[in-house]
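Sequence only, no structure available. Ideas?
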Amino acid sequence: MLTVRGAGRRYGNFQALEKLDLEFGHGVYGLLAPNGAGKTTLLKMLAGLLPPTQGEIAYEGTPLAALDEKYRELLGYLPQKFGYYPNDTPLKYMQYLAAIKGMDRKSARERSELLLDMLALGEVKRRKMKTFSGGMIQRVGIAQALLNDPRVLILDEPTAGLDPKERARFRSLLTQLGRDRIVILSTHVVSDVESAANEIVMLKDGQVFVKDTAEAVCSLLAGRVYETQIGYEEAEKFRRQYPILAERGERGEREGLHMRFAAESQSAMPEWQAMKPGLEDVFLYVYRDTAVHSPGRSEKEAARYENG
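Reply:
I predicted one. Tokens follow.
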């Protein structure tokens, strides 16, 4: 069990996160919030890379600071950007990291080849990574995070650069991994979280807004999502009246805009069609008025204060 009790993180005068109370058991947890809202800061805290400036984070009842190296042995971590040597092959890169982790050569070779095959990189394991696409590099990153068979796996934007087929394969892998370990991921691809995560964690204003199943989170908008057809001349007024969740242009006899939006049920018009809300609807609705910090602000603040 990974527990967060009253944890927060301050950078100088900037409070990035505060009063966080969370529990993570075996399963897959999807972290959702706009850019700059503290997702990466939280993941770094959970990985033991940033200590909380308030509160405590513990694994199996022991604070991460006390576990220190023992926690790192249990941890797999994929940051948004990870370092590698472009002239290395995936196999050489994985074996290099295995040596740093203290794995014996035979186990390192077997584990590296197993993971590269699992992530459809077996055929290119001896190709230099400078020839790889962004999606292939990302798969190498996922492989290295799994190298030590971690009990806690933390992934920051793991699906960045993956095509739909690769993302589907990755979601299946997450489901398997979550059976006997803690998997926490942050991603902008809401559909990946909705289909793979056992629970969703949403941050707002530096605090936990909700932590629940995708179904329960979607129920926050139950009975309040509609679709309708709007003429182009009415569209701007409609946008001012209702939070728009999606829209597309229609041609031919139905020329105009097909709008998906949120509204109170008592104000529903006969021509509106009630729709089942999805996680993306909730995301767009919850953060519609959020004044988001510029992307990565908390991390920039961290660098400024921690590097003097």
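The chain is about 35% helix and 25% strand.
Hope that gets you unstuck.
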